[in-house]
Design a protein that fits this description.
Elements: H1 4-9, H2 15-33, H3 46-73, H4 79-106, H5 109-122, H6 142-153, E1 165-169, H7 170-182, H8 189-200, H9 219-239, H10 245-254, E2 257-262, E3 272-276, E4 282-287, H11 295-302, E5 306-308, E6 319-321, H12 322-328, H13 346-362, E7 371-378, H14 380-394, E8 404-412, E9 418-419, H15 420-431, E10 439-444, H16 448-451, E11 472-473, E12 477-481, E13 489-491, E14 500-504, H17 509-520, H18 523-536, H19 541-545, H20 549-556, E15 562-563, E16 565-567
Parallel strand pairs: 1-14, 4-7, 7-8, 8-10, 10-12, 13-16
Antiparallel strand pairs: 2-3, 3-4, 5-6, 9-11, 12-13, 14-15
């Protein structure tokens, strides 16, 4: 039996079409299985959206409070931990109710129409997340792009002997923040058209086909027959480029190819995509963060029950955020009687797509050459990227026999995503890698999402109950950005305290200062920076605004080169 990877590697189709075929199969698979979100469609109808969001909120209440009551009945938690769990569950339930009302209000058609009109005239057509800086995606210079691509192509360092010095590459971070920001311009409406067509189709036979025997992209024909499959495929093809103008413009500006790869088990908000340089030897795996008016993303963020890493992250022996886990590994294919040999879940689509893309890129390289794979994301995208990155370096069998070489992750505004046991096991796993690998968490010190959530699990010497709901922890090393001339900080348990951590760039400090001066010495930038500074002074609201991609971009451009300060 020919695997999906073998079939696509030997196919004459374009790389983009190969990845799209895998994505279409994932969408159809999820719809057939009937996972909670994919079983629903909404079109552009406000009332259908209301019923959809109420259904998602009801699911959240059932999962969250079901855990609270079950843990009380069976005595799973100490009384203090259980009481804290009740308080946190109550707070998150209230926050999500407010978020549901907010999402419904901003999705009223006239409201969306007014914002669209304002955005097209004032914000270069950008969505709310990037609207502070309409020129964000033309801000990179040719030299910045060239230096970043050179760094992305570089060979990794060996981990033996253990490195006493680590380098945060500012050139890479600058480009990857652009990619993590621009994917917010991806719209969910096109996928609704596919789901609406799927909801109207009826399988031509009662027995589901064996996916392992089908070429990628043909599942829809096998399930529904050519006549019913035609409008489904037409809707999918139309949606491949719809609502992504800003992403395509940036890709063309930088000289990259782009393709969405996985909807992450949801028809709303967050998704996974790839960026790569044609003829190059690197790929960036990008996860989109929370869209403020997509309620499903809010539910993912606030489904904070910790569940076992289980089969998904074997060897880490801890617990992870259920909301993030369900977007990558939503269901157990073993219960489907082996129907889906390649897994059928979001992570399985991503890993197969990575293998296919890496094989295509390696065709232009010398035999045995590797393809560097980098990860990035912002906000919710960081939580998803953290777990995906942990799986990628923890399960080398996922990429065995392929040119894939997992490198670093550069994540911006990362939330907590697991417990202390998971974090410490991840540190050990990464330290034992053949190559130097680092998951960098870049934070703005005023950012509420990255700094205010319960994260006592980040402190190994703090005594905590194993079941404490306050014991959340991040993965990776945190770089706390500071404006020059001050050095930025590094903290966390990822590195030993004697590790020297440097910020490096192909540019000199003087050249970087010149770039910054050029960016800020125009009326638009000065006005934006003034508004940002005023907004950040507003209690709580300022901490939320500090989470925005544009404020991360402005702060990243202000950090200095050289050795970071350790904060214990």
């Amino acid at each position: 039996m020919t695997s999906a990877v073998e079939y696509l590697v030997n196919s004459d189709a374009s790389t983009n079409d190969k990845l799209a075929a895998l994505r279409l199969d994932e969408i159809v698979t999820m719809n057939v299985i009937g996972t909670t979100t994919y079983a629903r469609t909404r079109g552009n109808n406000w009332f259908r959206l209301l019923f959809f969001n109420i259904g998602v909120y009801t699911w959240y209440l059932r999962v969250t409070w079901g855990y609270v009551f079950c843990s009380w009945i069976i005595g799973e938690l100490p009384i203090f931990d259980w009481a804290l769990t009740v308080v946190i569950s109550l707070l998150t339930s209230i926050v999500l109710l407010v978020a549901l009302i907010f999402c419904q209000l901003v999705n009223i058609p006239p409201v969306r129409g007014i914002y669209s009109w304002i955005s097209n005239r004032c914000f270069n057509g950008l969505g709310l997340i990037n609207a502070f800086y309409p020129g964000l995606f033309t801000a990179l210079t040719g030299e910045q792009i060239e230096y970043a691509m050179r760094a992305l192509s570089s060979a990794p360092l060996s981990s033996f002997p253990p490195a006493a010095r680590r380098e945060f590459n500012l050139d890479i971070a600058t480009l990857l923040l652009q990619l993590a920001s621009v994917v917010y311009e991806h719209e969910s409406q096109p996928i609704h058209g596919v789901l609406n067509e799927l909801s109207e189709a009826r399988p031509t036979n009662e027995q589901l086909p064996d996916l392992g025997a089908l070429p990628p992209g043909t599942l829809v024909d096998s399930l529904f027959g050519p006549e019913q499959a035609a409008p489904i495929k037409a809707a999918f093809e139309a949606g491949r480029t719809a609502g992504e103008d800003a992403i395509r413009r940036l890709s063309d500006f930088i000289g990259l190819r782009y393709e969405p790869v996985s909807e992450l088990n949801n028809s709303e908000g967050a998704y996974c995509s790839f960026f790569w340089k044609p003829g190059g030897n690197w790929v960036v795996v990008t996860f989109k963060g929370t869209t403020p008016f997509e309620f499903a993303d809010w539910v993912t963020d606030f489904t904070v029950n910790l569940v076992s890493t289980g089969e998904f992250l074997q060897g880490l022996d801890g617990r992870i955020n259920k909301g993030f886990k369900d977007r990558l590994w939503a269901w157990d294919p073993a219960g489907e009687a082996g129907l889906f040999p390649d897994g059928g879940r979001s992570w399985d689509t991503i890993r197969v797509a990575l293998r296919v893309l890496a094989h295509d890129l390696a065709k232009t390289e010398l035999e045995g050459a590797k393809v560097n794979v980098w990860f990035t994301g912002h906000s919710l995208g960081c939580g998803l990227a953290s777990l995906a990155y942990a799986r990628a370096i923890n399960s080398p069998g996922d990429f065995e026999g392929s040119p894939v070489l997992i490198r670093d992750a550069y994540l911006f505004a990362a939330p907590v995503c697991g417990d202390r046991a998971t974090s410490l096991a991840f540190n050990t796993l990464t330290a034992e890698s053949e190559y130097v690998r680092t998951l960098w968490r870049v934070t703005n010190d005023k950012d509420a999402v990255a700094t205010l959530l319960p994260q006592f699990g980040d402190y190994p010497h703090l005594v905590l109950s194993p079941t404490s709901p306050l014991g959340f922890a991040h993965l990776g090393a945190e770089l706390q950005m500071r404006s020059l001339p001050r050095a930025s900080n590094v903290t966390g348990s990822f590195f030993s305290f004697d590790t020297v951590v440097d910020v490096v760039s192909e540019f000199t400090e003087a050249q970087l200062r010149s770039q910054r001066d050029e960016q800020v010495n125009n009326a638009g930038a000065r006005t934006r920076r003034f508004v940002e500074l005023v907004a950040e002074m507003i209690p709580l609201l300022g901490r939320i605004i500090a989470h925005d991609t544009v404020l991360y971009w402005d702060q990243l451009s202000q950090i200095s080169l050289g050795t970071l300060n350790w904060v214990h």
